[in-house]
Write a structure and sequence with these properties.
The chain is an alpha+beta fold and about 650 residues long. Helices cover about 30% and strands about 20% of the residues. The strands form 6 sheets. Strands 1, 2, 3, 4, 5, 6, 7, 8, 9, 10, 11, 12, 13 and 14 form a 14-stranded antiparallel sheet that branches. A two-stranded antiparallel sheet has the order 15-16. It has a two-stranded antiparallel ribbon with strand order 17-18. The two termini are about 30 Å apart. It comes from Sanguibacter biliveldensis.
């Protein structure tokens, strides 16, 4: 048997775009183009990673199954699924690896199948388990398989965690890892499965790898086909919807912001955060994207999760929770990890959990209002919770906060937070006036109108001709692109049009990608800078569509779609100057932004047949109780089909 090479000890610098994601409804794995599982947290999204090479080196844990010396590597998902097929072609042969995580079976498994299609190849297989985010070497041993007489498995155990590796070829473990390099010829097929269990638990029975691959593919396909959208952006829209489903816990109903922690916004800098938790804001926006695309079941699970997580006193509402609804998410640094591309610190937990962010309830109430319009019936408990949350907001909407961007600088009177406070109360008013629910509607209307008047007086800079980031500021903020989206202001109002224009002038790159804000002027309490934020760029598409600039909106949407990797996945940010992804991956914000931008552009062009739309669109109506300056689009949207635009650019990282 050929010798395996020594482990690489340099920090991971694999381009983020080179990763695929797998998932089972409880957690996600990141798999590189070279066949290395470099990130996997088990059993849940926010559990400690057992493969953490993404934020360190191979010595921090990975599962590599690859073919040596390929001259070409191609990959794809099997249709509308998260079953990954990677094909390696060498000078002597071709082999295919299929990876999958079985969804919805209550287990925590990852299966891999390698088949030699022609000729002969050299296969490299390495299983390096390091529990506790790559910190702990487990005890690795060869054990009898309790469920297969005469067969063996490799077991890694440390503290509460255990991983069991089964397969058709398992040499003895050496030096706290499993290694193998061997030759294989046409027609040979090898299957492997890695299963997590509590270290004290019984060993689960083996899985049929072929059955897992088939059922996982069918399960994702069945879910994807439910959307009625059939327009020209169907392919990227469906992939984005699938990502949102992937980031939704099938166990608790919680929705995480991303699958990873500490992928840098600023390479080599400190802007590295843990996004494996459930932000109310991100989850609510995710649900709006799903409902708008014809998916209603997910909102019931999330609403029930919300009831459990919030509970108690509305004054104790947090902006985020653990996947299971826990409140305590202390932030600390993992000093043993060098960080992705040497970007430190690596953080676990998130101190933003203790921040005041007044916009959050606005996103929640907008999502629940959309769900009511789509036919979701409120329970006594769910509406009671919303009433109490809105009543609490009415009492303190005018306190300074840290805003949607969770700045670690001073609290301010952020205009976006005021706008979303208005939206929260507005949707409560609609609950009473449109859906027949009970509540102190006149009291709510008075607060809503007071917020509107205050923002118009203090949030708009006449010299700048635009709304500003916070009261007294002389610069704008990309979050203000949502003002028309939530109905606070008519999109044709010159004050909003001027704001869009100013954001394009000061925050957009030459290709149209939009930064959140100007870091030096905002004073966000952090060193360094960051790349353009993809959801902000999609908000610009929405704003352009709403202001009648549909050609420009479509051109920008095509560019943004082209920033995804070859599998249609997007990170939090995209540096168009360097053609590289930045930030955590895959990111719910980015994908929900794409979904909503597609629907917004479709609505804007459907009357003149611009996107071949089909189905109905809910009309915009004056929001109850306003002075007529705001419009709110209610109800769900269904649209038209074809392929994604062929002219969309690819990233340089994704070039073959």
């Amino acid at each position: 048997m050929p010798d395996s090479p020594a482990l690489d000890t340099t920090p991971c610098s694999t381009p983020i775009a080179d990763y695929a994601v797998l998932g089972d409804g409880r957690s996600c794995a990141l798999v590189s183009r070279t066949g290395s599982v470099d990130w996997l947290c088990l059993p849940d999204f926010d559990s400690p990673a057992c493969f953490a090479a993404l934020l360190g080196t191979p010595e921090n844990g990975r599962w590599l199954l690859t073919v040596r010396d390929p001259v070409s590597v191609t990959r794809r998902y099997l249709g509308d699924s998260f079953v990954l097929e990677t094909t390696y072609t060498t000078a002597t042969g071709t082999a295919r690896v299929v990876d999958a995580m079985p969804p919805g079976d209550g287990r925590a498994d990852l299966v891999r199948e390698l088949e030699v299609l022609d000729g002969h190849v050299t296969i490299e297989h390495e299983w390096v388990v390091r529990f506790g985010y790559g910190a702990y070497e487990p005890w690795v041993s060869r054990v009898d398989d309790d469920h297969r007489t005469g067969r063996h498995a490799i077991r890694a155990v440390a503290g509460p965690d255990s991983l069991l590796l089964r397969g058709t070829r398992l040499p003895r473990a050496e030096d706290h890892r499993h290694r193998d390099v061997f030759e294989a010829s046409e027609g040979e097929r090898f299957t492997f499965s890695s299963t997590w269990t509590p270290s004290w638990g019984a060993t689960p029975p083996p899985l049929s790898v072929a059955h897992v691959i088939a059922t996982a593919t069918d399960s994702w396909h069945d879910w994807a086909r439910q959307t009625p959208y059939s327009g020209p952006y169907r392919e990227p829209l469906v992939r984005s919807l699938l990502v949102l489903r992937l980031l939704t816990s099938s166990t608790t109903g919680g929705i995480v912001a991303a699958a990873t922690t500490s992928l840098p916004e600023d390479f080599g800098g400190e802007r590295n955060w843990d996004y494996r938790y459930c932000w109310l804001r991100d989850a609510a926006m995710t649900l709006e994207a799903l409902v708008e695309s014809g998916y209603h079941d997910e909102i019931v699970g999330w609403r029930d999760w919300l009831l459990r997580a919030v509970a108690g006193d509305p004054e104790d509402l947090q902006i985020m929770y653990g996947v299971d609804g826990r409140r305590d998410l202390p932030e600390h640094e993992l000093d043993h990890l060098p960080g992705y591309a040497g970007s430190r610190p690596v953080r676990v937990g998130n101190a933003a959990v203790d921040q005041v962010q007044n916009d959050v309830l606005g996103e929640v109430m907008c999502a629940l209002d959309m769900a009511r319009d789509a036919g979701l019936t409120e329970t006594a408990d769910s509406w009671s919770l919303q009433r109490h949350l809105v009543d609490a907001l009415v009492e303190h909407w005018d306190r300074p906060d840290r805003g949607i961007w969770e700045v670690r600088g001073p609290e301010r009177d952020f205009v976006h937070s005021r706008v979303m406070s208005w939206a929260a109360i507005d949707r409560a008013v609609r609950g009473v006036e449109v859906h027949g629910l009970d509540g102190p509607v006149e009291h709510w209307k008075a607060a809503r109108d007071e917020i509107h008047a205050q923002v118009m007086e203090h949030g708009f800079d006449t010299g700048l001709g635009a709304f500003v980031q916070y009261y007294g500021a002389e610069h704008t903020d990309a979050s203000l692109l949502q003002m028309a989206q939530v109905g606070f202001i008519d999109p044709t109002d010159e004050r909003f049009v001027g704001t869009v224009r100013e954001i394009q002038r000061t925050l957009a790159t030459e290709h149209g990608f939009v930064r959140r804000y100007e870091t030096e002027q905002t004073g966000d309490g952090l060193e360094g800078d960051e790349a353009p934020f993809l959801v902000c760029s999609f908000w610009l598409v929405d704003a352009l569509a709403r202001t009648g600039q549909t050609d420009e909106a479509q051109q920008l949407l095509d560019t943004l779609v082209g920033s995804a990797n070859d599998l249609g996945l997007m990170a939090e940010q995209y540096d168009d100057g360097r053609a590289r992804m930045a930030g955590n991956f895959p990111q719910a914000f980015s994908h929900l932004g794409l979904v909503r931008a597609v629907h917004s552009l479709d609505r804007a062009t459907s009357d003149c047949g611009g996107l071949h739309s089909a189905g109905h669109h809910a009309p915009s109506t004056t929001s109850p109780g306003t002075t007529g300056t705001g419009t709110t689009s209610t109800g769900t949207t269904t649209t038209g089909t074809a392929e994604a635009p062929s002219g969309a650019p690819r990233t340089r990282e994704d070039a073959p």
